[in-house]
From TrEMBL:
Belongs to the ABC transporter superfamily. This is ABC transporter ATP-binding protein. GO terms for molecular function: ATP binding. It is found in: Cell membrane. It comes from the Bacteria. It comes from Arthrobacter halodurans. Pfam families: ABC_tran. Signal peptide: none annotated. Its main location: membrane. Residues 11-241 form the ABC transporter domain. SUPFAM superfamilies: P-loop containing nucleoside triphosphate hydrolases. SMART domains: AAA.
Amino acid sequence: MPHTTPRPTVISARNLTKKYGDFTAVDGISFDVPAGESFGLLGPNGAGKSTTMRMIGGVSQRSAGDLTIMGLDPEEQGPEVRAHLGVVPQQDNLDEELRVRDNLLVYGRYFGLPMSYLQPKADELLEFAQLTDKKKSRVDDLSGGMKRRLTIARSLINDPKILLLDEPTTGLDPQARHILWDRLFRLKERGVTLILTTHYMDEAEQLCDRLIVVDKGRIMAEGSPSSLIREYSTREVLELRFGTERNAHVAAELQGVGERIETLPDRVLIYAHDGEAALENITGRGFAPITSLVRRSSLEDVFLRLTGRSLVD
């Protein structure tokens, strides 16, 4: 067996807590992130994901616990930590008074970087973000996907070792999301550590080597997407629709089919290792669903198992 050198830990959190008065937004979570990993925080709105990101970025003080970024405390050594970070906020905050390329140059000056470095770096990042032909355009003239790519390009101006992405594709159409995913894959191939929050299950499965499922400020589960699906779900899921008024009634009649049944307002989910066999069992009992679909299990199924509600509440 070849010897694999462990990657150094770049982020370490122990009992990390954030309170706002009597409200606990982050409730004693612990995790480690090794260099070069794509690490995700998955959960619904209000779960504590963005609050955790703000503490990592050093813009929000923790109420309790320990947190180090590359061995540094972001509260005590904020400037040193931020020098190694790139931040992509949930909402684009580009300077709309400036042209596309100038957004990169001006942002780079905040880090004290010389123009001799910034000029070629800006051109390199615009090419990376597929925005070279837009470099003289006004930010207002860009599409939502272009603005998101420009925000990511801007976050890379200081060659960060860690990139924080808060809901990176919210509001984008499918084509723009896939282009953005490709850019993030390329960053990971370069060795950049990615920390991202999302409530999109497919995004977490595509981008994350490992993730934590967070709800109400607490970690519900941790692992790779595939390991979480194996642990908390079955190989396949059978989705059935009998009509809004009949779903719950029919579900009660189907107990014993598959390993577990979940009743949602619009459909019934039957978790089974063989979805087609489960469907044959149900039709053999005389039930005729309006629609039926057999699919592989996903992270959404994991979240339903852990919290009993959908990720996109």
